[in-house]
């Protein structure tokens, strides 16, 4: 009974996170300055939030060592993408890459896919480049790229931790089902993001 209540509470958290405001995280051009702006940026767009939480959910499904490797890989590689964006190096198809990240990360969570660990980390790392570049290009001239970058890396890590925490329900059958349903919803949201990116 207690485990069922916990699973229901976790499902409610998942639904609430999916119902977050669908603002696009890339509309704050000229506003991103300093640590607090960097901290806020990843949570200001549903596309980023769903992808970051999905990394944590997938890690929780896979268990050790993926549960810590994937959430460490993403911010580290994202910082590289952020640096590329900060110095003004263009990266084609950033919005498409971000939408694809939601689709594929949602899909692997929905399927509870278990590829080799290296492949899972590579997939997460590729998408991290796009997310990082999107964050990096938001820094206005003359502002501190370092404090801004620290902020968005920390926020990303916290979103991964959120996914891992929700993923604790994976130990129960109802929780496993709830996580897979959430993955399907993330993938469906990614299709909407993709349509917006190419429309």
UniProtKB/TrEMBL annotation:
Keyword Transmembrane: yes
Alphabetic keyword roster: Membrane, Signal, Transmembrane, Transmembrane helix
Record Pfam families: HupE_UreJ
Signal peptide from the UniProt entry: 1-25
Source organism superkingdom: Bacteria
Keyword Membrane: yes
TM region positions: 41-60, 67-87, 93-110, 117-134, 146-170, 177-198
Record protein name field: HupE/UreJ family protein
Organism: Eiseniibacteriota bacterium
Taxonomic path: Bacteria, Candidatus Eiseniibacteriota
